[in-house]
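--- STAGE predict ---
source: upstream dedup step, 1 unique chain passed
mode: sequence only
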Amino acid sequence: MPAREYEVFTILQHWKPCREILPPEVLLDSREPLFPLFAHLYQQAKQTYALLPKRKNGEDPFLHPINVVLFFKKAKLHDPLTSCVGLIHDIIEEKVDLFRKAQQVPLTDEGRALLDEEEKRIFAAFTQELQAFCDAHGFPPTVPEQILATLQLLTRHKRHFYYTSISSIFTCTDALLKERAIQVKLADRIHNVLTIENFDEHGRLYQCFKNLFILNNAKQYLLQHLLELVGKNTSPDHFTATEKLFNKCCKATYEAFLTLCHSCAAKGIQDLRSLLQLAFKKYAFETAGLWEVTEIRESEVHPLRLFQGVVRKYDARLHQEWEQYEAAMAQEKAFCRKFFADYTFSDEQLQALLDYKDAYSLKEVVAKLLYDPQYVLGGFLCSELSPQGRIPLTGEI
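--- STAGE serialize ---
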């Protein structure tokens, strides 16, 4: 019998991605009444992903839904409907993207309208096929209804900002539907951030930043709906499945930021690590810091200035507002060139320095989300977005 210490390690250890295509019976018990439906959706997803290019790291794209469902199993989430949705959570978006590529549809207003119509057609065809399969196998109407409702909630429409798409999950009024969608989204982002090894530093920061908005709102959800568990000395093996997925997503994101810190430091900025870290601590202790979405104070000459506006900078990148993003990067680089003049850093080293401080500060936010029971990042919640689905552009939250 394993020691209790080892049992706790198996609970707390970080999850790793699966690198092989697992058969459906490994992902879901074949004795489960809904297994025929799961196996059917498995084949549908497999056929769709076979049309897609390999992932950025060279792996089979079908590994993504495989890992999502596998994470449900690791979280001890025993809901076959959620497992079914996990297999197909991206299938509508992927089919729309295949159509867009084949037809070379531009992302203009007219192009987005065309893609919206194609999405409706694809969803209608998928609905018809799913309902026919369920009818033929005697599944109650609630089965396809719940799968389709969750899939609709998870599908990002081309006309929507990223935040708007995510917000629709957290503002859903159906409690069961909302939690299922949150669980799928957390598992989705765990796998995405665990497989960014072939991205450059900028790409890794961007992928991790996308996790931050989801984690922040998931924490708010946990505070609102699981208050009797959050913040208490509950044994980790008694966490709910949603808490486990939240915790593992936090840890995967933290690890990705930490790995990024190491790779940036190796570019010749090792001597400045403690200076940057202490500048962040000063910022966090003396101001709202990254605990709120803040503006840059142009008159600040202490390196704590480098931690102002980090969220806003990546918000601009998220929405492909390259002029704003590049302007923020240029301001930071100009400050560092003056402040660290003695080092005569190359442009590559200055960029590594900026990437290091971003990764370091954002990983600290993730750690606070994970371990501070009542903490959420103010100004970065669904309820605080503008009517256009954006974080406010001016003024401190």
